[in-house]
Amino acid sequence: MTTEQLQANAIDEHVDAVTHNQLAKHATQVHKFGGSSLATTQCINRVLDIIRQNCQLNDVVVVSANGDTTDNLFALYQLAKEQRDTALEEQDPRPLEQALNALKQQQELLINDLLNANNARQLTHALKADIEQLTTWLSGNLAAHHNDILAYGELWSARLLSALLNEKVCPSNSIDSRDFLVIDNETHYRVDSAKSAAQLRQRKQFGKLAVITGYICRDEQGHTCTLGRNGSDYSATIVASLVRASNVTLWTDVDGIYSADPRIVPNARKLHRLPNGVAKELGRLGNPVLHAKTLLPLINQTTDHHTHLHVASSFDSEVIGTEIGKFGQIAKQELSVTYLNDLLIAQSECFLGEYCAKACETFSPICSNDKQGFMVINQSQQKALSQWLASHDTEVTFKPVGIIATVGHKVAERGDIKARFKRSLKSTKPLHLVNSDNAHSVIAVLTEPCTTELLNNVHHDMTKDARHIGLVVAGLGNIGQRFLELLPAQLNRVYALENTHLVGLLSSSKALINNDGLDVSQAMTLFEQEAQGYDHEQLLSWLSHHPYDELIVVDITPSEEFSLLYEQFFTQGIHVIGANKWAASSPTAHFNHLKKLSAEHNSLWLGNTTVGAGLPINFAIDDLRQSGDEINQIAGIFSGTLSWLFETYDGSTSFSSLMLDALSQGITEPDPREDLSGRDVQRKLLILARKAGFELSLDDIACQNLVPEPLQGLSTQAFLEQAAALDDFFAQKLQEANEQNACIRYVARLQYDDIAEAKLTAKVSLEVLPATDAFANLTPCDNIFLINSRWYQENPLIIRGPGAGRDVTAGGLHSDLVTICQQLANKQNQVKIKGIN
Ligand SMILES: NC(=O)C1=CN([C@@H]2O[C@H](COP(=O)(O)OP(=O)(O)OC[C@H]3O[C@@H](n4cnc5c(N)ncnc54)[C@H](OP(=O)(O)O)[C@@H]3O)[C@@H](O)[C@H]2O)C=CC1
Ligand SMILES: N[C@@H](CC=O)C(=O)O
């Protein structure tokens, strides 16, 4: 292996390592701005902002000509040509002069609007020289300079942007791509990569952001060439392959690739991630944004280096676009529907058997079939194909057709998708159904043009179940691990979870995020091996660009700090399932703000395990209220820990030993003082009170703290070590209760009395209860909830059962997950297409 290859491999390994975990930062990037993104001073200022926010100095910017400049240069060329072809006495030089003047003024306007006087003077001077050269070419050997003339569009655009960057953003130099980019065959746009890469290295200046002209290059003889239609996109991906960039972003006037043309199919979904092969097939079958040749340089077969491509809108840079690259299974499930009209089906005996392959090689048809002897081609190919067949002495018939195709990774090999596609076409009776050679599409050949209605209906049938849900689990302790253990079976079993993928795992200091999904059966092992340090800024940045239709964060942390992120989650439409009680018991203003945000952004927020673990107490209260009931009393034993401790504690074992036992069983909070202080019960009562419709805060609930003061300020570890200091207090309380034939229980009580002066009273405290009390005879760890309401007055509603522990809590979280996924599925079903034409 050469030194260069070794270096290249080392770079690849490094890039692989940092990009596998998606919270890591990326390497060199190429940003390409299309003509519409650079059309006006306003657009160019937006581009400056995008560069400020997204580029580093070692990145590369590739530009198209500003707005319509290339079209205007081409029109200039045509005018000059017409003039040349006109008899001398009939020639009128004015239209050409006017067009040239208009072009010059357009450039001067941009220069003077954007640059300071000094820089504007320099660029105007250079522009003047260019216009003189243009004038010479237009009146000289026109044909020989066709491409030189067109090249000015990109040249001016790069020069202007680079000058502007120098003035306002960062050091920059503009590079004329003809100084490095060499193609050895203009027709097939084949790039001389070794020569071009070496020449680009020489031109790129260290510490300056390079602004490179798109669209143009040179051939081996040094003539200016263009890269054809959408050549600037192609330039960007070529440059990316030359500098071995990790990513190219095509900043354009659309915000991504959709599952169908969104101008025709209003319910088209944006495809966040497209595998390379599928993107190429979409480009081939008429996607207006992607072009097959743009994607060619993205995979280097020799080094296996993969560059990802993003399509994003320069008009709304915050909107997440589409990423094209190498992905795992989840992205491979994406389906889209595309169509082409104004095609011809050519039928000939010549297409039967081996000649078909030859014809395909020459004409690259949309589709063909060598058993039935047909090819579908563009109308523009009819003449050439007729001639080709005539030279083979064969007859051909042509008929107008359209096509509609379903496109997705290896769809032609998936019986279920093909069957669905056939069903969706049953009213149409296509002429043929053809699998594409690469198997990434199934194409239906239609006798009539594809209509808007057909496209909408087929799109609906093909993509109705296609929304993907990403799942991020925060908190991988006692409950989090059990949740993950149960996850594989749930994903297999529950239909509503069919498109749910585990994509992120977080502890307090480490994160493992993978957009391609994590293997659920090995989640914890993967986390231990691959998780990396992270901060909230990185996490939020990933969350704001996640590639899923919906994202759910399951918060199984005990952290207030993590709960403060809910505000950003909800703002981004992310759903939250919390076992963590902090947010739901936060100060009233904050809690109301979160509720408002989640409603505004359609974020679902469930927290049924925050009280009673898996018991359906939150459901019950919601249900009572929805049925018109009014709750006036909630009481009970809300702490599994305290229930277990007081039901078990009979004096034979010290209270502190029992507490350590409860901790090891996973019943207590990570810091058992959260239970013993009454705070956990206080939070639960607040959560239920809010559910029942009362507006109060923690301070409104009197709370008896059972932790002696000297133990309150210690670290968790120190507290556990000194836990024996609890024992005397509880021994004495137990003895006093025993003397009255009673027992001690930690009880929560909320009472609403609309006649009394203090209408609402709420407290959590240690009570001495008669041995016969309903709260006195629970199975250790059970919770009991007693509710009095209009419907349940004399005879209260009672819910009782285990209120803490790994299984019931993890189970309760899974119940919330299914509920959310079912609701999201219903949301998707609301977009039924009615049929429009
Ligand atoms: N035990 C039970 O029966 C019930 C518990 N709950 C709630 O479940 C939650 C988890 O309890 P449990 O599993 O026992 O706790 P553990 O202490 O066992 O685990 C907590 C996990 O959260 C992580 N974590 C802590 N802070 C953060 C943070 N800021 N960001 C991301 N991750 C963080 C920890 O990471 P690290 O290891 O790095 O510290 C750890 O992985 C608590 O809120 C608890 O109230 C709710 C109902 C019942
Ligand atoms: N520590 C809590 C756990 C559940 O919220 C309890 O004991 O109830």
Automatic annotation (TrEMBL):
Pfam families: AA_kinase, Homoserine_dh, NAD_binding_3. Keywords: Amino-acid biosynthesis, ATP-binding, Kinase, Methionine biosynthesis, NADP, Nucleotide-binding, Oxidoreductase, Threonine biosynthesis, Transferase. The keyword NADP applies. It comes from the Bacteria. One of its GO terms (molecular function) is ATP binding. Transmembrane segments: none annotated. Residues 617-818 form the Homoserine dehydrogenase catalytic domain. Its cofactor is a metal cation. Its EC number is 2.7.2.4, 1.1.1.3. It catalyses: L-homoserine + NADP(+) = L-aspartate 4-semialdehyde + NADPH + H(+); L-homoserine + NAD(+) = L-aspartate 4-semialdehyde + NADH + H(+); L-aspartate + ATP = 4-phospho-L-aspartate + ADP. InterPro entries: AceGlu_kinase-like_sf (IPR036393), AK-HD (IPR049638), Asp/Glu/Uridylate_kinase (IPR001048), Asp/hSer_DH_NAD-bd (IPR005106), Aspartate_kinase_CS (IPR018042), Bifunc_Aspkin/hSer_DH (IPR011147), HDH_cat (IPR001342), HDH_CS (IPR019811). Residues 28-301 form the Aspartate/glutamate/uridylate kinase domain. Residues 475-603 form the Aspartate/homoserine dehydrogenase NAD-binding domain. Pathway: Amino-acid biosynthesis; L-threonine biosynthesis; L-threonine from L-aspartate: step 1/5; Amino-acid biosynthesis; L-methionine biosynthesis via de novo pathway; L-homoserine from L-aspartate: step 1/3; Amino-acid biosynthesis; L-threonine biosynthesis; L-threonine from L-aspartate: step 3/5; Amino-acid biosynthesis; L-lysine biosynthesis via DAP pathway; (S)-tetrahydrodipicolinate from L-aspartate: step 1/4. The keyword ATP-binding applies. One of its GO terms (biological process) is methionine biosynthetic process. Homotetramer. PANTHER family: HOMOSERINE DEHYDROGENASE, PTHR43070. In the N-terminal section; belongs to the aspartokinase family. This is Bifunctional aspartokinase/homoserine dehydrogenase. It comes from Litorilituus lipolyticus.
